[in-house]
Design brief:
By secondary structure, the protein is mainly α. The protein has 13 helices and no strands. Helix 2 crosses helix 11, helix 3 packs across helix 10 and helix 3 runs antiparallel to helix 11.
């Protein structure tokens, strides 16, 4: 059945894009959950609407413009967190609502149906084209290279910011890069899952893995496996039942999470 599905070029592109983004989001998701940053991803996803709207009005490719806008928002969050008395969730809430409002205003000036906007709002992994795949591959390669080169520092930083600073880690630099990496990964995920659902794939595999694993290494490994399995199962379900691809992927990730919760409850009683 899988070979039959992969006979279609659009499914080949969808699976390739899904594997790339799944690997990226599941790795970053582990640290995002440790640092309690799930709302950051949600904020970036909604804020990206302004970048998408600017691209559509300017007749530009939406994905590159949305990525640049995400970097801008991530840097702005970082700066405002450290230069004001506002808490992180307040800063993110202000920026994502403001940016989303800007996107709505910009889109109101365009006439007619906008398929690219609908694609980013609700996700359409089946619409991923060759240029999108190239961008996904390059961004994923850059982020993953930095991520594994800095993994020890990032783990230490996630556990204790003060201790990391004392040990000589450049906490400000690494935190800023992590914000940017998470923002870029989120926007790439928006292309596949949509603004509404993208944060689910960042959090669900990591949360599921946390319930099942005893060590940090296995935590990361199982998170990746669950994320990729969710994407594959979701794509198959979407293809066979003619369902929305993004929602199908998130639904499968939710099923894995539910099974992990049940397993965790029963094993903890023994």
């Amino acid at each position: 059945m899988l070979l039959e599905i992969l006979a279609y070029p659009f499914m080949q592109r969808a699976l390739t894009g899904g594997i790339l983004i799944g690997f990226l989001l599941s790795n970053l998701g582990v640290l995002a959950t440790i640092r309690k940053m799930s709302f950051f991803s949600e904020g970036i996803a909604h804020a990206s609407l302004a970048g998408i709207a600017i691209a559509i009005v300017g007749n530009l490719a939406p994905l590159p413009v949305a990525l640049v806008w995400a970097i801008f928002i991530a840097i702005l969050i970082y700066v405002l967190e450290r230069s004001t008395k506002l808490h992180s969730d307040t800063v993110i809430g202000v920026l994502f609502t403001s940016s989303m409002a800007l996107g709505v205003i910009i889109m109101s000036q365009t006439a007619g149906y906008q398929p690219e906007l609908i694609s980013f709002l609700f996700g359409n992994i089946l619409a991923v084209n060759t240029n999108d795949l190239l961008i996904m591959f390059l961004v994923t390669l850059i982020i993953i290279t930095w991520f594994y080169a800095s993994l020890r520092q990032l783990i230490y930083l996630s556990l204790s910011d003060d201790s990391a600073t004392v040990s000589g880690i450049k906490t400000k630099t690494q935190t800023l890069i992590f914000y940017i990496a998470l923002a870029l990964a989120t926007v790439l995920g928006v292309k596949i899952l949509g603004i509404v659902l993208v944060s689910a794939l960042l959090i669900l595999p990591a949360a599921t893995s946390r319930l099942l694993t005893p060590s940090f290494f296995s935590y990361m490994l199982v998170s990746v496996l669950i994320c990729e399995a969710s994407i594959l199962a979701g794509l198959i379900l979407s293809f066979l039942k003619d369902l929305p691809s993004g929602a199908s992927i998130v639904l499968m990730a939710t099923v894995f999470f539910a099974v992990a919760v049940i397993f965790n409850i029963f094993t903890s009683r023994k």
